[in-house]
Design brief:
Number of helices: 14
Number of domains: 2
Domain ABC transmembrane type-1: 96-305
Transmembrane segments: 102-123, 135-158, 178-198, 236-262, 282-308
Helix content: over 70%
Order of helices and strands: HHHHHHHHHHHHHH
Protein name: ABC transporter permease
CATH superfamily of the largest domain: MetI-like
Strand content: under 5%
Subcellular location: Cell membrane
CATH topology of the largest domain: MetI-like fold
Family: Belongs to the binding-protein-dependent transport system permease family.
């Protein structure tokens, strides 16, 4: 019953987000037909605008458009782009893997950097190393992504010439160049993420080190490394995993600036272009997919907690 309730609540949340997105994008000033027909800054002919609105179905009542969109959603269809009539699902299917790739590499970087440094800071609590690592975490946690991205371009690309300033090459076309272009935007996102993981890991390890079972293991003469690996980390990493999962969901909608700075053709940059051109189906479909993935990550964490700890289900 608990699992069914969580799944039902997640589906309801996704529907609410999609409905709000549908209403919000139609409230934004600007007519897609006028934008499509505007050339050189001249106002288009009103009759041509009216004809295009009728052709695109924008002259129908908003509730009718919403009903058609919901019926299409039930059938697994996200509509067609107003600009080129291409299925929105196909547009998202091409762009989404690129954004997910960016997020997964950034998450891997954050975990590989943040967790070991967080454990080290907790073990050496109060030392100069601990203060330096806390300073690193505070610096990058509060630094905007576009600032980090700009610094990486100036240092790694302009000064040292190690990587390109940006762009995209498919992996199948040139694997080495694809990885080179992927590293900088992933690190730009991952540095702030690593700071969050570091601070969360440090706090969780410090809390676990003061537990009774750790003191019992010490009294029995267990080796410090064995205590740290088998007793402390196994209990301290659960809240860290939760933070990582939730932050991954937040990054789905937070890669806009990174994709723009590094010219990475992901789903976020596509959504910005769609908002500028008032391409309603693309904007709503993209927000629906992002919200679904975010809610799915939250649901997975909730269900995992429920399986591990029966008290959560109660």
């Amino acid at each position: 019953m608990w699992f069914a309730k969580r799944i039902a609540m997640s589906l309801l949340l996704v529907w609410m987000v999609a409905t709000m997105a549908f209403g919000a994008i139609h409230i934004v000033p600007g007519d897609p037909a006028e934008i499509m027909l505007s050339e050189g800054g001249f106002a288009p002919d009103p009759s041509a605008v009216a004809a295009l609105r009728e052709e695109l179905g924008l002259d129908r009542p908003l509730l009718t458009q919403y009903g058609d969109w919901v019926r299409g959603l039930v059938r697994g269809e996200l509509g067609h782009s107003l600009l080129d009539q291409e299925p929105v699902g196909e547009l998202i299917g091409r762009r989404l893997p690129r954004t997910l790739e960016l997020i997964l590499v950034a998450t891997l970087f954050a975990a590989l950097v943040g967790i070991p440094l967080g454990v080290l800071a907790a073990v050496r609590r109060g030392s100069l190393l601990d203060r330096c690592l806390n300073g690193f975490a505070a610096l990058f946690d509060g630094m905007p992504v576009f600032v980090i991205a700009t610094l990486l371009i100036l240092v790694l690309a302009r000064q040292l010439g190690w990587v390109s300033t940006g762009g995209y090459v498919p992996f199948a076309q040139n694997p080495a160049e694809h990885i080179r272009l992927l590293l900088m935007p992933s690190i730009a996102i991952g540095l702030g993420f690593a700071a969050v993981v570091l601070r969360m890991t440090r706090a969780a390890v410090l809390d676990t080190l003061n537990r009774d079972f750790v003191r019992t293991a010490r009294s029995k003469g267990a080796a410090p490394l064995r205590i740290l690996v088998r007793h402390v980390l196994r209990n301290a990493l659960m809240p860290v995993i939760t933070v990582v999962a939730l932050h991954m969901g937040a990054m789905l909608g937070g890669t806009v600036l990174t994709e723009f700075v590094f010219n990475w053709p992901g789903i976020s940059s596509m959504m910005v272009d769609a908002v500028n051109s008032r391409d309603y189906p693309v904007v709503v479909g993209t927000l629906f997919v992002i919200a679904s993935l975010f809610v799915a990550l939250n649901l997975a964490v909730d269900l995992l907690y429920g399986l591990i700890d029966p008290r959560v289900r109660a």
